[in-house]
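debug: dumping io for the single-chain case to check the tokenizer round-trip. Nothing else runs in this session.
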Amino acid sequence: MSDTPRTAVVSGGGTGVGLATARALAARGYRVGLTSRRAGPLDEAVGELRAGYGDDAAHRAALDLADPAAVGEHLPALAERLGGVDVVVNNAGGLRPAPDDTLAGIAEGWSADWAANVLTAVLSTEALRPHLRADGARIVNVGSIAALRGGGGSYSATKAALHGWTFDLAARLGPTGCTVNIVVPGYISRTGFFGGGMTQARHDRLVSQTVTGRAGLPEDVAETIAWLASPEAGHITGQVIQVNGGAVMGR
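debug: decoded output
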């Protein structure tokens, strides 16, 4: 392998699982490029990583990853600043509830979830594919336990769509040496995903569904992603890797 530091682009990299992933990769010597719609958290994350690992350790691009024009402008430029890309982590996403229960409102909610959870990953990956290094590139998508057991409406459905796309992309890119996998977290605490909707009763119920007896942490997911991103994971592709404490097993 080359002595050139490996590089990674992590979407949703300013907070939560994305930031934990950036930290895990930077600790392994990666240069990381972070993307998010919100410039403030990105600036804080980049500042933290540069303070810990040097001024070239982190770069950022604030943009809407569902906007083709913005993606086409900013992501190739970010890849150039990194000097090429070894790893793409498609972590951006979230739940966009329908504004009301009219057909128009339902269509708006489903379209918003599709854009947030599928289109962001597809556009990011396609924009960065020309910049992937030939030697051991990795694409890691981040899904959700809701894709496996439902309960999230359009969020479950759009996260499930990432599975089929992951398998297709793995088959297409396998001959190039690039692996493609999807990491599927269960309940992860210490993130902003639930907003103000996480009560103690809900927390206790979700923890009770695990066999480990605890909530997942962003670092649990980040370490799994970092392993899949490593050269040592070169024969693992087209796989669904669950990080849920046994809440759902064996799929």
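debug: round-trip ok. The longest helix spans residues 103-128.
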